[in-house]
Amino acid sequence: xxxxxxxxxxxxxxxxxxxxxxxxxxxxxxxxxxxxxxxxxxxxxxxxxxxxxxxxxxxxxxxxxxxxxxxxxxxxxxxxxxxxxxxxxxxxxxxxxxxxxxxxxxxxxxxxxxxxxxxxxxxxxxxxxxxxxxxxxxxxxxxxxxxxxxxxxxxxxxxxxxxxxxxxxxxxxxxxxxxxxxxxxxxxxxxxxxxxxxxxxxxxxxxxxxxxxxxxxx
Length: 218
What we know:
two-stranded antiparallel sheet
């Protein structure tokens, strides 16, 4: 099945819409915890409470589970922040922001789509197979499809990397690899979805939200 991500709204856009309508909106994130489902799978549970105003007596509350460890390049290693983003996106969706097509956000849909690699044998320049030192079988390697990330996305990633104090190309590739769950040698290797996941991970929404009021207000 093919999804058109153009039909979905990012969590960041939903939050901006909410802040326009509710300038005093506040977000309180609960402490994440690990839970085990009846089938034995482990999940990270994240909860959030969204207050539309200082005196909101009926705030919006949401919970979400993210499988741990993540099963896609977009979730592995970033399970908790992904869960937090999804949780906020769904709460804002329940509040009516960005749901013309679906309650799911663009971020949710993109993270669920996997990059399908292929496996190919490793050979020497003369074509002879390279043996595995432990099994003596021919080595194989995982090859990902050519990247289709845009120049704008790559420029944004470089800029966000500098903001995070990453100045070397090697450091940038390593940091990006941690987000997408695989090693890359250049930003041109990224797919559009992977680039979007890096930009989302490095563009936290917290800076858009004013500081929380004293606890006793609630």
